[in-house]
Amino acid sequence: LTRLDADGHAIAHRALGGDPAVAGTAAFRDGVLAWASDQTITWFGDDGATRGRLATLPGERVLALATRGEHAITLVEVAGSTPLHRVRAVLARGTRAGDVTTTALAWGDVLSGTFDAAPPIAVSPSGDRIAFARDGEIVALAVASHHAVMTFAIQPSTAPAIAFFDDDHLAVSSRSALLSWIDGKDQESPPSA
Structure pTM? Predict the structure, then answer.
């Protein structure tokens, strides 16, 4: 983590990693979430202090992590289950004791319903929609209903990048530098898991 001043000059830094190795990071609230090879997710504040740590359950493996503001999701492989891959929320929960508030990470609900999700994954600014790859398409779901609100066909061999720029529009890019905007406003359809 590097703290910058208003002019972009580094004023402090802290290394993340060591053992176990950090597999990926994503900005989260006032810090960063780091996903490690030991299947833990650690929340570091902007001062480098550990704010929370979360381990997967037995038989689970983290495959991807995505954040947007206050919202964080993971793609988790769950051995021996159907569906094998699930998108699950990561929650930052605060508890108050007198004048002191502490925040810890906790697992939230499975958000992908009965869909077998694959990377990449994305979460909308409100946290009301998620997106992921599945069987040659990108699927965006309304979290509350698990209904597909938009789909976009992709080549199975591509490894696209996806991101919401608001709750109704999803950007999809591929290795061929193709960039597409998907408009999902008012397009709810039942899931076809």
Answer: 0.80
Q: Is 177 exposed, middle or buried (0-12, 13-18, 19+ CB in 10 A)?
A: exposed
Question: Is residue 120 within 8 Å of residue 160, measured between CB atoms?
Answer: yes
The C-alpha atoms of residue 97 and residue 106 are separated, in whole angstroms, by: 19
Calculate ∠ Cα 54-58-64, nearest 5°: 55
Q: How many residues does the chain have?
A: 193
**What value does the mean pLDDT take over residues 52-63?**
91
Q: How confident is the model over 127-154, as pLDDT tens digits?
A: 888 888 887 777 777 777 777 767 777 6
Contact 57, 68 (CB under 8 A): no
Which residue from 115, 111, 127, 109 is spatially nearest to 164, judged by alpha carbons?
127
